Amino acid sequence: MSLVHWRNHINGQWVDSDQHLTILNPASNQPVATIAQACIADAECALQAARRCADSGELIAVRPARRVTWLLEIARQIRLVADDGAHLLCAENGKTFNDARDEFIEAARYFEYYAGMADKIEGISVPLGNGYMDFTLYEPMGVSLQIVPWNFPVSICARSLAPALAAGNAVVIKSPELSPLGLCILMQAIERAGLPTGAVNLLCGRGREVGAYLAGHKHVDQIVFTGSVPTGQSILRAAAENAVPSVMELGGKSAALVFADADREQLLSSVRSGIFFNAGQVCSALSRLLVERSIYDEVVEQVASLANSLHIGPGAENAELTPVISAGQLHGIQAMCRRAQEQGARVVAGGDAVSGLSGNYMQPTVFCDVTPEMEIASQEVFGPVLAILPFDTEEQAIGLANGTDFGLVAGVFTQDLNRALRCARRLRAGQVFVNEWFAGGIETPFGGVGLSGYGREKGQEALYSYVRTKNLAVRIQGE
Ligand code: NAD
């Protein structure tokens, strides 16, 4: 049976290319579909199309209410394709069908949320005394380049695409090579909403070739990158050539502080989603559990038995632990687990790949006796691997939590509100959860400090990354 072939979307057309990529199902490593692999010429066409659209004023000269209707129509179209899109995303990405469907629904929510802001991007008037009138305008950046990772391609893409369009930018999206198909379905939904030609362009191409070319291009006015630290750093170097502002959403090694009075049920349900959801391939995963010593042994045992109880299997069967994205990713995770043991960490659950299954399955893994200088305590694994460390005092817990180069999210589990708020203030992270991991939503600003990046996505605040301020200072004659 021949595979379905997908193409890039450039200047309002679906465009093929000479080279194709084969997309594999992580649950079997069998091919799912092929996709056109964009080349430099495709990237150039996409940027030219976005530039023409941005410069034509078609997105910004209209009444803002027009952009509201475009975004709401995109949301409606996404909801219509959510089931079909979820089947494809589940097959190419390995995640469960339900989680894949949630991604499409979340994507629709981003468009609804930012539709509500598209006609409220209001400047201020600045009093300068008689003889002057002064006010500010928020103008779109122009062309927004959005480079998307494979772990939540559809919702992460919508997270930056929706505010960019709400503010009147034209966009070029660089989809991830390992999981680009769900974005083709998203693009089909966008196409049906009837935006001006060139407003949204979608390219699937090699990062180091096409991604790097795009990042250094003079037609790009703003970059939103979500992905790994080394790639983010190389994009920043390219962006520096043209002094292009950027939003960087990078990795994490996020810690939860667990005090002896923590509600155990809340904690275990947070650990379950925090590190095992999406096979741990979540930038804001709960990858370090810092536990007060008086309950340390008990919590280690409970978390180990939780990990051992998870049903491992394909996303299509909505298993509790799904495969990781690729064989390469699996090997990297295995290697980190081996090094953790060599450095003295003790495995209490998992520790290796699952044998006897043909896909990229990693056992849900829990390490205890972890010390801060071990690699497993400070470096991102991006897999279902948890490190548990003990602490004796609140001060020590904060020091451990803040002791890596990252600072994406953090959590505090305690019944003592004063302690929770005290710790939350001192935690070096862009978002702090109290008593529930992933407690935020599309309404809550999200982003990192340190090597986790800068700029904020989600919430009202994110919109202002997609505009620049212009001040109009007017001298009034005769006043
Ligand atoms: P990655 O950095 O390998 O790739 C991300 C994207 O960048 C892909 O589209 C890739 O093709 C492109 N790319 C690669 N090299 C490039 C280059 N030189 N120039 C331009 N583009 C290039 O990351 P990944 O493996 O897809 O994703 C995993 C990483 O992403 C993890 O570190 C994770 O923590 C991070 N992440 C962060 C967030 C967040 O919001 N903070 C969300 C999801 C993932």
From TrEMBL:
Family, as annotated: Belongs to the aldehyde dehydrogenase family.
Protein's recorded name: Aldehyde dehydrogenase
Active site: E249
Domain Aldehyde dehydrogenase intervals: 14-471
InterPro entries: Ald_DH/histidinol_DH, Ald_DH_C, Ald_DH_CS_CYS, Ald_DH_CS_GLU, Ald_DH_N, Aldehyde_DH_dom
GO molecular function per UniProt: oxidoreductase activity, acting on the aldehyde or oxo group of donors, NAD or NADP as acceptor
Species of the source: Pseudomonas taetrolens
One Pfam short name: Aldedh
Keywords, ordered alphabetically: Oxidoreductase
SUPFAM superfamilies linked to this entry: ALDH-like
Superkingdom to which the source organism belongs: Bacteria
Regions crossing the membrane: none
